[in-house]
Amino acid sequence: MPAINHALIARESFSNIVARSNWASREPGVIVVFCIVFVVGCGLIGLWISKCISARRAKTALPA
Questions:
Q1: What is the pTM assigned to this prediction?
Q2: In this predicted model, what pLDDT tens digit does every residue of 17-57 receive, in sequence order?
Q3: For 42, phi and psi rounded to 5 degrees?
Q4: How far apart are CA 54 and CA 57, in angstroms?
Q5: CA-CA distance, 40 to 19, in Å (whole number)?
């Protein structure tokens, strides 16, 4: 009985089932929008954290 490489058969069938395509290269505008939304979101979260910290510092410095 000849030796059968089961790993090769499994890899070939898996690559047939999961056909990978590069979605990001086909849709660069969507990726740019995601990046812009992420940067704006991080900026807003940073602004909110900065305001919370400054409000806490103002509240603790008020009685002095």
A1: 0.60
A2: 666 778 888 899 999 999 999 999 999 999 999 999 999 99
A3: -65, -40
A4: 5
A5: 34
